[in-house]
Amino acid sequence: MFVIAMNGGVVMILDPGLASKARDGDRDAFAALYEACYPELYRFALYTLGNQEDALDAVSDTFLEALKGISNLREPAAFKGWIFRILSVRCKRAVGGLILRRNTFDLDDFVETSDRGSASLEDAAVDNAALAKAIAKLQPEERMILVLNVLHGYTTKEIAEMLAKPQGTVSSKLHRTYGKLREMLGGEEDG
Amino acid sequence: MAKNEEEMFTETLNQRLFNLDQSIPVPPMPDVSLLFERLTETGNKKNNIRLFPMLKTAAVACICLAVLIPMLKSGVGARSASPQAAEDANMLAMGSPASYDGGAEEEYAADTAPRESPEMAYQEAAPAAGESAKAYGRGESGDSASVTCETNAPEGETGAAPSALELLAGYFAAGGKEVAAETKDAEQVYDTGKRRVEISPTGDSVSVLVYDSSGQAELLSGFWVEGGYVSSDLSGDGRTCTVVVAKAVSAAEVEAGDFMPQTGDLSGYPRELLAESITVPGAVVPRVTMTAVIDLYSGEYAISAELR
């Protein structure tokens, strides 16, 4: 697998050979995929569901579903998109539970509080907390679209396929999400 | 110029998102062998009991058909014979598949506009930047049968009405007692064929989930309101759902200046209804009654609050 730098961040590209082996029943290969994808899937679920507990459940169910269904995966190179699709369906199902259990967005799950030591780390933590707070005010689907587009590099067309939405809807939601964030964070940046 | 600013903002925001993403603490990964175990467990269960549910399903299906066919035959006959059948929109509440048939959006919007609340604005459309959700008074004269303290309608020199908090403080100061809200625990489900509304009292709040059942039963909208479930109804040919929730106000809450119920939506970010927007219809009752009107087409909803 490769890790490439993109806009200062990192996006993981998986080795299709691993997915191919996993599809053929190689458990070590599946374990390697699991290890490689877990952090990204966890973060995606966390953005969508807003708290660690729900995110861990969604990721665990996703891997189980992937394990059950990987023998049917037609294109091993598309493993990452495939597993994100499973996770996004899981997250969409879990979103109703946020209402039923009155689960709230837990900012503590987003911001590392233990390793603050210097002023710059402190500033970074404050900056991250402000952004996480703004993200908390978005709707789950808006968060999904934003994260898939910005952090995982999917196009609106690919996201539309993943979320079973028209591409126009995804594009307009992405645009609106930026608008909302701009409104929420704009004042802070001006100041 | 504006476009450049927008692009710069987007670039900065994306960078910040990357920074946040990389700083998110990821909890330890559960051992992959647990997944394999779970897979084996579910596989074994399936194999062991596969035959039984199939037989059970077949038997149940036979019984259902035997019972339903005569019922459907007589039901269809009775319905077509009734001249009011088409107008009986509330029948939709009982899960009848007949529903609004996707009429023109304008017609739909006109039909579903809350008729008695022109001031109503949709909460979801409001910018959520750290503001409380607005509750709009409906200006109706509510039934205030349990009122023990008449409103001393403020005709002060300034003309400013006392706040709900002041009225409630006056109520308790005058010896008024707490009044429990009469609520129900039962869940309520409406299925219009295209929309499914699930109303669930969950302890100290009521959750409302609206599913688009025309496709993959996707969640269209959802919110919760603090309080107990009082009633609900479908109207406008099943295009609007109204949910009434009540929360008793205690003397202690009034003393602390914090009696307004909270509400939350799918963002998981709770807000308090604005005390300034609460309506006091005629007399003070220590109970906030909230009416959520949901447009089942769009999933948008508005919550109004009254002291009644």
Quick structural overview:
The complex is a heterodimer of chains A (191) and B (308). Chain A has 191 residues and is mainly alpha-helical. Chain A is 70% helix and 5% strand.
Tell me what you see in this structure:
Chain A has two domains: 1-104, Rna Polymerase Sigma Factor, Chain: A (Orthogonal Bundle), CATH 1.10.1740.10; 137-191, Arc Repressor Mutant, subunit A (Orthogonal Bundle), CATH 1.10.10. Chain A has helices at residues 16-23, 27-49, 52-69, 79-100, 119-136, 140-151, 156-163, 167-190; strands at 2-6, 9-13. The longest helix of chain A is centred in the C-terminal third of the chain and has 24 residues, at 167-190. Chain A has 191 residues and is mainly α. In chain A, strands 1-2 form a two-stranded antiparallel sheet. Chain B has two domains: 30-81, no CATH class; 89-308, no CATH class. Chain B has helices at 2-23, 32-49, 51-81, 105-112, 164-173, 251-256, and strands at 149-150, 188-191, 195-202, 205-212, 218-226, 228-235, 240-248, 262-265, 271-272, 283-284, 287-295, 301-307. In chain B, the strands form three sheets. A six-stranded antiparallel sheet of chain B has the order 2-3-4-5-8-9, with no helix packed on it.
Q: Which percent bin holds the helix content of chain B? A: 25-40%
Strand order of the largest sheet of chain A: 1-2
Order of strands across the biggest sheet of chain B?
2-3-4-5-8-9
Strand content of chain B: 15-25%
Q: What is the first-to-last residue Cα distance of chain A?
A: 42 Å
Output the radius of gyration of chain A.
17 Å
List segments of chain B where confidence is low: pLDDT < 50 over at least 5 consecutive residues: 46-52, 75-159
